[in-house]
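Quarterly update from the structural biology core.
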Amino acid sequence: MLLLNPRRVRFGSEAWEDVTAMVIDRRAARTVLEWSDEGPHAVLADVPRQRVGIRVVQQVAREDVSSPRPGDEALLVAYTSPAGSEGGRRRVSCFAVVVGVSHELSLSRGAVRTVELVAVSASGGADPIVVEDAGAQS
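Predicted structure, tokenized:
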């Protein structure tokens, strides 16, 4: 899932401004493959464990010594819409844990912070990412 220009992302009580992208990737954490004796191709594939990773990319306009730290955990919330308007707005949220923070400095992009998180499911069986109609919420 790719959210372009969600502008502001909330992580707990913090508001991360000037966000250029929020990327939600889903990967297999454990894969089960089985073959038959009839040929070289797998006859069963299953993914019993998944990892939902999130990257939040943010332009940094000034010095900031309060960036998140690995192990910080909170509710992550972002709003997006297809045309940047109120119509079709969606609220994307999940409980997440910070696993990494990196910074990049370049002449073309300026200062960029990338926060990497892992989404955590409340029960283990439910999808940790919740996408719902946002209406006029912010």
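The first strand starts at residue 2 and ends at 11.
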